[in-house]
Amino acid sequence: MTAAPPGQGGDNEPAQLAESGHRGLAGGPRKVAVVPHTHWDREWYDPFQTYRLKLVRLVDELLDLMESDSSYRHFLLDGQLAVVDDYLEIRPENEARLKALAASGRLTVGPWYILMDEFLVSGETIVRNLQKGILRGSDFGGVMEVGYLPDMFGHVAQMPQILDQAGLGHAVVWRGVPSAVTRTAFIWSAPDGSEVRAEYLVAGYGNGAALPEDAKQLTRRLSSLEDEFATFLTPGEPMLLMNGSDHLRPQPWLGRVVAEANAIQDDFDLAISSLADYLASTSAEGLVEWRGELRSGLRSNVLMGVASNRVDVKQAAARAERSLERLAEPLSALFVPAERWPAPFLDLAWTSMIRNSAHDSICACSADEVVDAVLHRYAEARQIGEGLTEQALQAVGRSMAAAGPVVVNPSAHERGGLVDVVVRAVGDPGPDVQVMSERSGIPGTMTLDGETVRTLLGLMQGARIDDQSYVTEATLAEDETGLDVTLVIGPEPREGAAVEEVKRELYTRLTARPGTEVRLIVDQPPVRRVLARQEPVAGYGWSRFAPAHLEHPVRLDGSPDGGLTLFNGLVTVTVDPITGTFSLDGVPGYGRLVDGGDHGDTYNYSPPTNDSIVDIPTSVTVSSGERGPVRASVEIVADYQWPGSVDGTTRTRVGSLPVTVTTTLELRADEPVVRVRTRFTNPSRDHRLRVHLPLPAPAVTSRAECAFTVVERGLTAEGRDEEFGLPTFPSRRFVTAGGLTVVHEGLLEYELVDVVAGSNGTGPVASTLALTLLRATGMLSRLGMALRPLPAGPMDSLEGPQMLGPVDVHYALCVADADPYQLVDDVLLPLQLSGSFGGGSRPDRGSELTVDGAQVSSVRRSAGALEVRVFNPTDTDTTVGLPGRSGWLVDLTGRPVAPFEGSFALRPHGIATARLDV
After folding, report:
1. Most CB atoms closer than 10 Å: which of 203, 565, 719, 864?
2. Is the separation of the CB atoms in 529 and 437 below 8 Å?
């Protein structure tokens, strides 16, 4: 992202400032720390390799300059080690030169691996990013001990605690700083009370970019800057001049012009400095304190619309994060022997995740080629996670003493849940399972010719016949009358089944005896596929498949014309066949789709001048799906006429295109959650589609999951004319307001709407939560938008963000009083299944790890030990229980903090990492 031009507000025009500045103490010269740097977007409006060509040129020049000119004392390599690795991949021969400059303190690297967006990725991704940066930086003598955050689109509430736990006492920020901060520094505290001193880049990270080569001009430039930002500068404190900006190369004359400027005047004392040295000269005394997230647009753009563009990218991120954080890592750590910990695969996957967390990457405010690369990296990370998860589940199956399906719980809390399993069809299935299909057994013998057998066996993919049938045993026998092939078929794959070996041997013998008779003997017992609610499984535990008695079976009542109702005794869902909406426990209007124009860009939503809202379907068809008792569903098919695009000249929505939206509502036994899936093929450009969800009670605030905590937000947001303070906010996986909890997969943007005055003259209250399902735009950035008139980046036309084609989104609703973190696990992290043929030593049920008293962010192996990271998202103290375990609490760099045995205390909103000895 582009920083403000030198001496100008640009996208981040400051509030009214005093007309004259202050010099140093007692009228002496003001010290000016000149920090040469570049801000390096790894990919943005050009793809990565295009930018890397420029990066290699920049670093080549930098190395030559710093080695030949000792007056060019320091350079900040943008606080991210990815820049170093990207360069050394092309210039490995220059690694020693980089290390020498870094070891001497002249070249500053890290602490991050990449400069990420903080709101659109998980807290665990932020931590892994920092850890990877610190680890890689150790090869260069260590990282800069400053939390450098120059261009993130706002900052999460827990960032001070994350920095503090990595030993970083300073942060450097630009965007999101609220009106309460009126100086170039403030104390920034996390919800748990952790503090850092935050340096506020009022004019952005480029206030000293493109400095003049002439000393007199430089002095005038400094005087202008000092006057412009006088009210922010503290008397006696030095002034920070960030000499660089997006992809700018170093200015080779800088050392000379700084020396000349010092020689011709007494108002300023300039020195080329590192950022860490500058911060060491500052004070934290008397600074205002700000607690929590930074999302104000008062002085700089926070570009809140990045949360809703390219929903496919956000969905891909959510799935990949879940695949690694909640499945592959904990299951591999707990069920795979320590010596087989798949570190190379996980490192590869996490590198892709971290690279994708770069703000221009996950935010999808980039060229279409860049977004294609982002999606590819997410797909590969997810594929690694899924593969490792399957291997861990297979390990559980092999270790079971008894044969049959085994259910694994990848979450920390004990729970039951729906499983879809194929079992032998023996007797009456009973009232607590839902039979989806049944297949009769097929024992018997078929006599075939060799070519037919070749064809049949050639169609098999290994041991797999279909999703419910696998060859679990294969044998071949031969006598003078012919060949006997015996296949035993079961509902689960069996490792070691010699199918391919038998096929090869059969082909060999048929070649030797062409025309011989082949007797194919198939042994497949009758099977049925059933849905059942598994009995509770311990956290991080396993249990043989055991259907639970349904306390609240679900049923489907009514008729499509009169309205269908899903009911389980915990929640009632009734569909309105006229509007296509539905009610929850008698509150109507859920699921109302509201489509409006969007003349914005990838950074910001902005309504067209002449908007037209479509929220009433032209026709609705309601049909029944599954009828229970374990799962029931209703399908709503609604037809709409959406405008085709926004006319760029008149800024009016024009055209009319038909679209069919299919929404499936699903209710399960013994759960208060309604799962919603909405699918359509998007035909239209330049629009935003939101689903409106009534609140059971009026709300003045929302509570949304963010990194390692829940943040509370009001109905408004700070802004200014250059960027309207639109109160659309991001949530990681859930948001609650007015008695409604929404759990979602990658649908990050929400807003409380339908705001009216409260009863009895009280302040404004909201009655609806709007969840953005799609935001389609055709511009990377745009000039002249209603809500942000100046561009935020290149004004390039793009096709990808229009999101033409299939859209498939998922969310869930709960109006009961329930723990949202548990809802997230129940909705997004299903119980896992594995098959077992017995013969191991693992008992029928048990747990590998018990963690209670806090939410678990990570279970993995680190430094050879089992490591658990937890956080307390509540306002009260808690005790984290790890029964039977002992070890050390460590910080985010792995340094020991305190020993523990069995449990440890955790403060409100605290984060803790426990490395276990046993």
Report:
1. 203
2. yes
Report how far apart, in Å, the C-alpha atoms of 664 and of each of 334, 478, 650, 679 are.
Answer: 36, 55, 38, 9
pLDDT at 533: 98
Q: Are strands 832-834 and 406-408 parallel, antiparallel or unpaired?
A: antiparallel
3-class SS at 916?
strand
What residues does 657 pair with on adjacent strands?
642
Split at pLDDT 50, 70, 90, the class of 8 is very low
Radius of gyration of the chain (CA): 31
H or E segment to which residue 825 belongs? helix 820-828
Please tell me the chain's helix, strand, coil percentages from 3-state DSSP, rounded to the nearest 5.
25, 35, 40
DSSP string, 463-483: TEEETTEEEEEEEEEEETTEE
pLDDT tens per residue across span 859-873: 999 988 999 999 999
Distance from C-alpha of 747 to C-alpha of 731, rounded to nearest angstrom: 8
Phi, psi of 393 (to 5 degrees): -65, -40
pLDDT at 199: 98
CB-based contacts of 85-92 (< 8 A; 24+ apart in sequence): 85/136, 86/42, 86/48, 86/52, 86/55, 87/52, 87/55, 87/56, 87/59, 90/52, 90/56, 91/56, 91/59, 91/60
Q: Are 378 and 320 in contact (CB under 8 A)?
A: yes
pTM over the 0.85 mark: yes
Closest of 107, 111, 122 to residue 166, by C-alpha: 111
Residue 19 has pLDDT above 50, yes or no: no
d(CA 563, CA 575): 5
Interatomic CA distance for residues 448 and 444, integer angstroms: 13
pLDDT at 10: 35
In angstroms, the CA 185 to CA 171 distance is: 10
- pLDDT tens, 70-89? 999 999 999 999 999 999 99
Q: What is the largest CA-CA distance in the chain?
A: 112
Summarize pLDDT for 348-396 with one digit per residue, the tens: 999 999 999 999 999 999 999 999 999 999 999 999 999 999 999 999 9
Q: What is the 3-state secondary structure (H, E, C) of 749-811?
A: EEEEEEEEECHHHCCEEEEEEEEEEEEECCECCCCCCCCCCCCCCCCCECCHHHCCEEEEEEE
**CA-wise closest residue to 491 among 461, 531, 464, 459:** 464
Residue 4 per-residue DSSP state: P
Sheet containing strand 433-439, strands side by side: 415-424, 527-537, 433-439
